[in-house]
Amino acid sequence: MLRIRSIVFLVAFFLNVAIVCIVSLPLFVLPRKAGIRPMQIWARINLFLLRVICGVKMEIRGRENIPTDGALIASKHQAAWETFALMPILPDPAFILKKELFLLPLFGWYARKFDMIGVDRSAGSKALSEISEKGQAAIDQGRQVIIFPEGTRTRPGAEPAYKNGIAHLYHRLERPVVPVALNSGLFWVRGSILRRPGTIVVEFKPAIPPGLPLKTFRNRLVDEIETSSDRLYREGLAELGMTPPGGADREAASA
């Protein structure tokens, strides 16, 4: 039954993508801001479908830490879920995405239209300079710039590997950084169509102030995100009635 519900959701999800992309074509002749609300509605429909079909709910913690103006947000990345689920939570999000996604039909067109920030991961320091410039422009417009500091999805409980992009942005833009922890990978299983019923928790942590030494900033960011994500991982496992692989999670194993 779980597999059947997951397949039904997958079909509904892509139908929603196709319908919204087609219906929203007139947005291409309107200013960017005119499209924010329709895209947030699209994301809410996805969350609704996920809840009704698969029994996957969302809980938001730390609402008081959600920025309402220009800000940097560093989020844990475990599944495709957060690439749309964060959209309706924030007033005017700008995701930093790998540039290859801009080549996709429909999705890439909308990513460009709504000024998402593409990064060429093979371009090294040039890419860092480019995302700094575009990130600064987005923040100056009052947007919330979202970066996944590990650069790719990481399985729940796996050892993290943070890239240099977030530290570069923190130093160049001199803005507070809001860490975000989550446990989406337990319910939106990477490399599988399965969507396990339960509660995905996304937790916004207090902002890390600008001006810290980069090593101090990096250690604090990793600690904030990973400690909270490990805690949410254990909560999710308990809800699912599961135990960590090997019987112990990463945090417990390192204690």
Taken in chain order, the helices and strands follow as HHEEHEHEHEHEEHH
Distance between the termini: 39 Å
Overall morphology: globular
Portion of residues in helices? 40-55%
**Class per helix and strand makeup:** alpha/beta
The number of distinct β-strands equals 7
Radius of gyration: 18 Å
Mean pLDDT, nearest integer?
A: 90
Tell me about the largest β-sheet: 7 strands, mixed
Count of helical stretches? 8
GO molecular function: 1-acylglycerol-3-phosphate O-acyltransferase activity
Enzyme class: transferase
Pfam families: Acyltransferase
EC number: 2.3.1.51
Task: Describe the protein's architecture and organization.
- The chain is of the alpha/beta class.
- The protein has one domain.
- The protein contains 8 helices and 7 strands.
- It has a 7-stranded mixed beta sheet.
- Strand 3, helix 4 (107-113) and strand 4 (117-119) form a beta-alpha-beta unit.
- Helix 1 runs antiparallel to helix 2 and helix 5 (125-140) crosses helix 6.
- The longest helix has 27 residues, at 214-240.
- It is globular.
- Residues 71-185 form the Phospholipid/glycerol acyltransferase domain.
- Pathway: Lipid metabolism.
What's a quick, concise take on this entry?
InterPro entries: Plipid/glycerol_acylTrfase. Residues 71-185 form the Phospholipid/glycerol acyltransferase domain. With 255 residues, this protein is α/β, with parallel strands linked by helices.
